[in-house]
């Protein structure tokens, strides 16, 4: 046995390959290098579940799995995008073809290394040694990230990039990612543009769009992304990010087209399958939604990446399809998740949704009505969010017609529309929840128009020198409705016109208190999870 390095005896490895002979050979090679624990997995889906639950120091993964929905590249991309792969893991892709396109794809996805079959034990040892040495060289950068010193980590990465020292390309990606995290998109943009000046790397073109989006320039970001997908139609991350930009602009049909492209390019990506299905549901394309969400459930059973929002949408679809057996299976899953997390208000709410759907299917309509009223009673609480509003309305419109006329519901619809109609995207999300009920959709859009009109009136006051009146109006209406747009606008006007506002400190404190109560960001828009895990981003987990 010839040890690879002094730390190898404490390492743990995973081999992912559909061929048992190949797995046995690689396992023997790793053990000869001193790796004491080697796990062998034949399917990508099983590997993903295992890597979600326990980190490994070394992963050797076949690139292509005949007939499987995921490639090794797909697995790597999803693990990194969802922050499930620690920086210390050496991830090596193994392929039987060394085409230029594959090599460049691997390099730009920041895979640690690749091996071309057939290869010798000596070549494997060399690649692993190189990867582990790089991890050690970059350790000061990762230490800063673990300590929360984001700006310092960004500076370290940028210094390595500017000096063109070893691993400068990876350092450029990390520096830009860190500046985005530090809310300094201008510095990230400068790095991406510097990389592009040398060569048109796909990650840098995507990064320019991400930086412009972070700067509050969604139209410029969208133009960049549209140009990128036109020139590189196989770039799944670009389609994904374009879909998210379209969602934020309230253009769900364009978003669905882009997300469908991303999902088709990465058919084993659980998150994208869910987002494709959810967007289809909100647009009323129920057959497409059911197909994609059923696929996501089959791919993701047992995975941390399977979202309860997707399960709830699937339960609604199965109720609409009057499929008792399959509805019961999803209801049981949601109920079990809620029982396992009694402190989780979101899961408790979705568990109650599940019970109401089961009651509706069994024609226990009064029981379902009681759940809807229970959810409606919580609508005035700060923790009642856009997702809660969606599922409350989705339950309401599935009640028998006689029960939908309950006196609780018309004022509830207006209340939810006023509170959550902060943007076209949020408004259309609510519209998607009420489905084929045009009067309800008309009410939701009318309340959004009312909010937009109030905001415009307030800004007119401010521009005419009546900033105090503008802020007072925004705060009063924001307090009554809980609408985050009006409340955030009150804070912005206060900051801009502070010298024109009487008792400005008291006004500022009032706005701050309302922001803390009502302005939590939405977790989902049209079923698409909003998070810091951005398509095209680099994993920065310590």
Largest sheet: 5 strands, parallel
How much of the sequence lies in strands comes to 5-15%
Q: What is the CATH superfamily classification of the domain at 8-136?
A: Response regulator
The name CATH uses for the topology of the domain at 8-136 is Rossmann fold
Q: What is the oligomeric state here? A: single chain
Mean pLDDT: 90
CATH class value of the domain at 8-136: Alpha Beta
Number of helices: 27
Shape: globular
Query: What order do the strands of the largest sheet run in, or round the barrel if closed?
Result: 2-1-3-4-5
Uncertain parts: 100-108, 538-542
Strands, count: 7
What's the end-to-end separation, in Å?
31 Å
Question: How much helicity do the residues have?
Answer: 55-70%
Radius of gyration equals 26 Å
CATH architecture of the domain at 8-136: 3-Layer(aba) Sandwich
Structural class: mainly alpha
What would you note in describing this structure?
It contains 27 helices and seven strands. Helix 4 links the parallel strand 4 and strand 5 (113-116). Helix 17 (324-340) runs antiparallel to helix 18 (345-361) and helix 18 packs parallel to helix 20. The protein is mainly alpha-helical. The chain is globular, with a radius of gyration of 26 Å. Helix content is 66%, strand content 5%. The strands form two sheets. A five-stranded parallel β-sheet has the order 2-1-3-4-5, sandwiched between helices. Strands 6-7 form a two-stranded antiparallel ribbon. Among the domains are: 8-136, Rossmann fold (3-Layer(aba) Sandwich), CATH 3.40.50.2300; 138-232, Serine Threonine Protein Phosphatase 5, Tetratricopeptide repeat (Alpha Horseshoe); 449-522.
């Amino acid at each position: 046995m010839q040890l690879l390095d002094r730390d190898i005896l404490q390492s743990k490895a995973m081999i992912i390959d559909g061929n048992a002979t190949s797995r046995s050979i690689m396992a023997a090679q790793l053990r000869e290098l001193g790796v004491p624990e080697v796990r062998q997995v034949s399917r990508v889906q099983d590997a993903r579940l295992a890597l979600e639950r326990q980190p490994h120091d070394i992963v050797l993964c076949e690139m292509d799995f005949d007939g499987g929905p995921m490639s090794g590249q797909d697995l790597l991309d999803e693990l990194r995008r969802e922050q499930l792969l620690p920086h210390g893991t050496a991830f090596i892709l193994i392929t039987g073809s060394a085409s230029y396109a594959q090599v460049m794809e691997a390099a730009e996805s920041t895979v640690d290394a690749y091996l071309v079959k057939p290869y010798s034990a000596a070549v494997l040892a060399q690649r692993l040694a190189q990867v582990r040495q790089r991890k050690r060289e970059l350790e000061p950068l990762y230490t800063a990230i673990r300590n929360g010193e984001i700006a310092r980590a960004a500076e370290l990465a940028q210094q390595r990039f500017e000096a063109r020292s070893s691993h400068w390309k990876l350092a450029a990606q990390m520096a830009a990612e860190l500046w985005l995290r530090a809310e300094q998109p201008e510095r990230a943009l400068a790095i991406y543009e510097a990389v592009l000046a040398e060569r048109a790397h796909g990650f840098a073109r995507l990064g320019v769009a991400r930086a412009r989006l972070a700067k509050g320039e969604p139209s410029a970001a969208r133009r960049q992304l549209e140009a990128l997908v036109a020139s590189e139609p196989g770039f799944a991350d670009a389609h994904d990010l374009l879909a998210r930009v379209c969602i934020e602009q309230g253009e769900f049909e364009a978003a669905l087209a882009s997300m469908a492209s991303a999902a088709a390019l990465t058919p084993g990506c659980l998150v994208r399958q869910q987002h494709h299905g959810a967007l289809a549901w909100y647009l009323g394309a129920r057959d497409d939604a059911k197909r994609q969400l059923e696929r996501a459930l089959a791919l993701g059973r047992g995975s941390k990446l399977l979202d309860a929002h997707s399960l709830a949408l699937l339960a609604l679809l199965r109720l609409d399809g009057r499929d008792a057996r399959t509805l019961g299976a999803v209801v049981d899953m949601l109920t079990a998740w809620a029982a396992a997390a009694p402190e989780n208000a979101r899961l408790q709410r979705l568990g109650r949704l599940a019970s109401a759907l089961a009651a509706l299917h069994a024609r226990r309509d009064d029981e379902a009505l009681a759940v809807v009223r229970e959810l409606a009673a919580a609508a005035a609480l700060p923790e009642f969010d856009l997702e809660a509003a969606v599922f409350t309305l989705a339950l309401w419109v599935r009640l028998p017609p006689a029960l939908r006329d309950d006196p609780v519901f018309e004022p509830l619809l207006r209340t939810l529309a006023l509170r959550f109609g902060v943007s076209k995207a949020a408004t259309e999300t609510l519209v998607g929840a009420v489905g084929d009920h045009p009067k309800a959709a008309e009410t939701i859009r009318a309340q959004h128009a009312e909010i937009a009109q109030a905001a415009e009136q307030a800004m007119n006051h401010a521009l005419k020198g009546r900033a105090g009146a503008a802020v007072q109006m925004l705060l009063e209406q924001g307090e009554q409705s809980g609408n985050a747009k009006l409340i955030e606008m009150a804070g912005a006007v206060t900051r801009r016109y502070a010298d024109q506002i009487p008792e400005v400190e008291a006004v500022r404190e009032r706005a701050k208190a309302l922001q803390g109560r009502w302005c939590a960001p939405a977790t989902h828009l049209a079923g698409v999870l909003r998070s810091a895990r951005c398509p095209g981003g680099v994993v920065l987990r310590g």
